[in-house]
Amino acid sequence: MGKESLGVKETIEMMKHVASVIIESEPILTDADRNLGDGDHGLGMERGMNAVINKLSESEADEVSDVFKMTGMAMMSSMGGASGALFGTLFRNGGKALEGEEKFDSKGLHSFLEAANDGVKSRGGAIPGDKTMIDALEPASIRAGEVSEMPLCESIKIVAQSANEGKNNSKEMIATMGRAKTLGEKSVGHPDAGACSVAIIIQAMSDFINT
Ligand SMILES: [Mg+2]
Predict the structure, then answer these.
(1) Average pLDDT over residues 126-147
(2) Which of 18, 47, 154, 182 has the most CB atoms less than 10 A away?
(3) CATH of 8-209, one of 3.40.50.720, 3.30.70.270, 1.10.10.60, 1.25.40.340
(4) What does R_g of the chain's alpha carbons equal in angstroms?
């Protein structure tokens, strides 16, 4: 039975599920970064998500915003590099936008993704079409605004699909920022590894919310 909103405990369980799916996806993310970058993205994300599981297991979150802020801080402090800063910013800024909210619902999903997208854009400097994680995150954020009146179990499916389409669209882009910018036209044909991570994260959220 799909959920219409999540409380604090369910949000913690959702993020632990997301973390375990990213850890399982390490070989996929490593391959994706090997095609276009230095190949360290999968192991970095695995390290970050192990830190997230530890942090969420030992810390007390008072509200849903804390769960996402803790996720972001655990990634920032454990991963290092551009991915640590950018994925840390995604969750920390997204979490800040939910301060004071008792539940994570469709409106919260939109607030979270909008703040996450704005935060990553201003931190990294990429815009849509540069072949970065923004190419999955921005379409997801825009779609979340369009479906924010639906129950969370429905909206999250649609938003996950948008992130996945954005990731697929990044295949045909010529990298002008991020891991593959020195490859130029040679970057065409592969999706961006950061966009792959964003799509996997949102799909894992959707799968948790719909079980
Ligand atoms: Mg890399």
Answers:
(1) 97
(2) 18
(3) 1.25.40.340
(4) 16
